[in-house]
Design brief:
- The chain is an alpha/beta fold and 109 residues long.
- It has a single domain, classed as Spore Coat Polysaccharide Biosynthesis Protein SpsA, Chain A (Alpha-Beta Complex), CATH 3.90.550.
- It has 3 helices and 4 strands.
- Strands 3-2-1-4 form a 4-stranded parallel β-sheet, sandwiched between helices.
- Strand 1, helix 1 and strand 2 form a beta-alpha-beta unit.
- The termini are far apart.
- The mean pLDDT is 85.
């Protein structure tokens, strides 16, 4: 096992979700609580174009990444966003284990 391997998660949280208005704002705290509980990830990056999400990201001591307008559009793909983040953050593929998680309605019982 490589001790230098970093486990990184990217949370895509677009401002203008189409299906449910302000979905990512409403569900962000649940996702943050979940990720803090599992403590598997070395870095948690929230990729958003929403200033409200940026404040919540910093409050939770996560890394905020301001996604480009291209990757904040309705027709943008998660793949394109992750490629953007990897390129801008200069992850070394050899030392990074990347995952992405969507904001969800997860709640504790």
């Amino acid at each position: 096992m490589n001790k230098n391997l970093k486990h990184v998660v990217i949370i895509p949280a677009r401002k203008n979700s189409k299906g449910l208005k302000n979905k990512n704002r409403k569900l962000f705290e649940n996702t943050a609580k979940f990720l803090k509980k599992i403590s598997f990830f070395d870095q948690i990056i929230v990729a958003s174009d929403d200033n409200h999400i940026e404040k919540k990201t910093k409050k939770n001591n996560f890394i905020f990444y301001k996604r480009s307008k291209k990757n904040a559009a309705d027709n943008s793909s998660i793949k394109s966003l992750i490629e953007e983040v990897v390129k801008k953050k200069k992850f070394r593929k050899k030392y990074s284990n990347l995952a992405h998680i969507f904001n969800s309605a997860y709640q504790e019982n």
